[in-house]
Amino acid sequence: LGGGAGTGPVAERGLLQGSGSEDEAQPGPAAAAAAAAAAAKREERLRKFRELHMKRNEARKLNHQEVVEEDKRLKLPANWEAKKARLEWELKVEEKKKECAARGEDYERVKLLEISAEDAERWERRKKRKNPDLGFSDYAAAQLRKYQRLTRQIKPDLEQYEKLKEQYGEALYPTSDSLLHGTHVPSKEGVDRMVADLEKQIEKREKYSRRRPYNDDADIDYINERNAKFNKKAERFYGKYTAEIKQNLERGTAV
């Protein structure tokens, strides 16, 4: 009876349950495909994350390099770009001279051959001009140019000069030992001529009005003309101290 009970319906049910658990332990083809797709999607996301991480590091590195270069430019003199261009031009001229010397040619002749006819005519016209305006270099040069322009307008009285020369002789040409104060009394005609010249200068200065050039590409940081003048004054005195703060605000890297 004990053996019969072991081979009854209860035993068959136990056998069926055991076979079902073994089938569930082994995943089917659909589950394996889903797991493989999930793994591929996860790998793709990790790859994109690594790419974004590398791009962020590269952007941070480039931003740091730009900040360093900008700091170097701010520490350079105001006319550094002009000096750099001048030095590069001088280096090119020296190299050209060495090449001409190696070929046995005259550098000045080679340079003239490279100049166009239009440039040569423009330079000739500039040379022929009297007292050409070369732009502002310093106050001494501007004062000399003004002096030369005023002295060209003076028309000397040669007859009066000859009379004074006969009257004073060598004393007409003062030396370091000459006493100048009180020895010369200008004529009424000379005083009138000087007054007329001064009045002409004053009248010309009053008519002259230089309009400041307006830059359309400049940033508008003012609300009216008076505020624009105030901002220019503030920039002139405090611009070098606030330049870095302004650049950080524009870049969005301000703390």
From TrEMBL:
Domain of life from the UniProt record: Eukaryota
Cellular compartment(s): Nucleus
GO terms under biological process: mRNA splicing, via spliceosome
Ranges where the record places region Disordered: 1-39
Cited Pfam families: SYF2
PANTHER family membership: GCIP-INTERACTING PROTEIN P29, PRE-MRNA-SPLICING FACTOR SYF2
Physiological role: Involved in pre-mRNA splicing as component of the spliceosome.
Subunit structure: May be part of a spliceosome complex.
Family of the protein in this entry: Belongs to the SYF2 family.
Listed name of the protein: Pre-mRNA-splicing factor SYF2
Gene that specifies this protein: Syf2
